[in-house]
Amino acid sequence: MEYSRKEAKKWARQKVRGLYMCPLTPVSSDLRFDEKGIRENIERYVEMGIDGLVVGGFISECWNVKPAEWNRYHEVVADAVKGRMDLWTIILDPEASVAVEKMQFASRLGYNGAEVINPVVQLRNDDEVFDWFKYVTDRTDMAVCLYRTPVSGKVLGMDLMRRLADIDTVIGVKQGELNRAVTLRMRRLMRPDFIVMEPAEHWFLEEQRLGGQVLWGELSYILYGKKRGLVKDYMRLSAEGRYEEARHAWLELDKVRTYYEDEFLWTIAATATYAGALGTLKDWYAAIGLKAGPVLPPVRSASKERAEQVAAKLREIGVV
């Protein structure tokens, strides 16, 4: 890894910036991860100028594979990236020793950090959750981004967050509650070297003016297709202090942003899962020329008619 245990927060403050995307995983007709497709997509991500990939979680369907397939997926991604982007894994396992094993495995492959969900079964009070994270972080020096989300069954409270933030390797949080007021309050209350990450492109222009440094753990920039250059435009203009021009570029994304929010973010908010959105996202990937394939069963893929609707909408709003 690129840092020592004591340097994790400082390293993350300097390194974890820009666009950290969670990509979909191509699946072949025999319902296995498509390694060739993964590699082809990664070449496209490099061309897009993505700063980091956050892989192995719900969006990538790695919750729905065997342990050997999880390992192989991470090997393929690391080999394809070849150090051209920062790499993070996602840990969803409630069993602490399994979480440690996966993090140690990923670190040997060159992954710099792990987004870690709190255990989704059994452990609910603050002391129990803290002890779980302490057990895990005591056994690996890998940087940890907390995954604060209703999907876990317990949304981490502010007091617990402050306790966890004092662990050397806990560098920040994906604030996945979809509540902007909470993001801003958390940024005021947490220690200054702790990164509060907002996973919604809608707020990324404002984030750049209010202390945010990374668009973390979603995939809007990939999905925006022919419109994605506008994200880079407003990032550059904002960095140059040209805020009105930046806002103009941001506003040009309104139609595709609204479609993305309707089909992805609000599906998650309504169901507290990612599974219901995957079929539509796979069709979106295919429409913009990325390798996609079906959703791994038992989750259903979208119908042919649905795929045609998605493609037609993307043509209408200028994404393809």
TrEMBL record:
Asked if the record carries the keyword Protease, the reply is no
Recorded protein name is: Dihydrodipicolinate synthase family protein
Read off the InterPro entries from this record. Aldolase_TIM, DapA-like
Question: Do you know which PANTHER family this protein is assigned to?
Answer: BLL4205 PROTEIN, DIHYDRODIPICOLINATE SYNTHASE
Cite the SMART domains for this sequence. DHDPS (SM01130)
Q: Which GO terms describe its molecular function?
A: 4-hydroxy-tetrahydrodipicolinate synthase activity
Q: Which residues form a coiled coil?
A: none
* UniProt xrefs under Pfam families: DHDPS (PF00701)
Q: Which UniProt keywords apply?
A: Lyase
